[in-house]
Design goal:
3-stranded mixed sheet, elongated, 10 strands, 60s Ribosomal Protein L30, Chain: A, single chain, Hypothetical Cytosolic Protein, Chain: A
Length: 219
């Protein structure tokens, strides 16, 4: 027996990985379901695909291309499924995945550049700690190749001030380039709410694709 539309809606659930504010009925119009997992998120937390004039499905990272799109949690298995269903040749799918992974990294780093130019990016542990001790509640970003002693100091800072918006991704070299430093940077903090929202979404989609979880633990 076919499911009713009501039963189909009930089978969907909001993705517990979503890092934004709690969702309520007033925001439900902005929710979209992943076509593979059926998990729901605000649409900017998913990866949108849209057909180009030639009928080929393209990833739309900014969510601005014209046309009716579909949305997916951008884990590689989900993306393979979408591309296969939409007729992409098997020989092209892995190339498309590499392109999407590179684009997700580039978009995240572009967001750091925007935060730097807006004057709301704290660079390095000392700068971040001063902002937190002054009452700031940043989105904390940790490079994956950060040394153990810096991780320990950051874990203590997180525990002491109850910070809960912490992401680990990429590396110190790319952090340094993105935020305008001459050398590598291990720890960053985004202080502005609007910029934090963008960086958080880009970090979530990056983590969906690359599967990396934060390893900073409270002491």
């Amino acid at each position: 027996m076919a499911k009713s539309s009501h039963e189909t809606r009930r089978s969907r659930r909001v993705d517990p990985a979503w890092p934004g504010e709690p969702l309520d009925a007033s925001r439900e119009s902005g929710l979209r379901s992943c076509v593979v997992t059926r998990l729901q998120r605000p649409k900017q937390g998913l990866l949108r695909f849209v057909a180009d004039p030639q009928g080929e499905w393209r990833a739309d990272l900014a969510g601005r291309l014209p046309g009716k799109g579909l949305y997916v949690v951008p884990a590689p298995a989900n993306l393979r499924s979408v591309l296969k269903r939409r007729g992409s040749p098997p020989t092209e799918i892995e190339t498309r995945l590499e392109q999407i992974g590179s684009a997700l990294s580039a978009r995240f780093l572009d967001g750091l550049g925007l935060a730097r130019r807006a004057g709301c990016l704290r660079r390095g542990f000392r700068d971040l700690a001063e902002a937190v001790q002054s009452g700031g509640r940043p989105t904390v970003l940790l490079a994956a190749d950060t040394a153990a002693n810096t991780r320990q100091k950051l874990a203590q800072l997180i525990h002491r001030h109850g910070l809960d918006d912490v992401w680990e991704l990429l590396d110190r070299e790319r952090f340094g380039l993105a935020c305008g430093n001459n050398g590598p940077v291990a720890v960053l903090g985004v202080m502005d709410d609007r910029m934090s929202h963008r960086v958080r979404i880009d970090a979530l989609r990056w983590r969906d694709f690359f599967g990396q979880q934060t390893t900073v633990q409270a002491p």
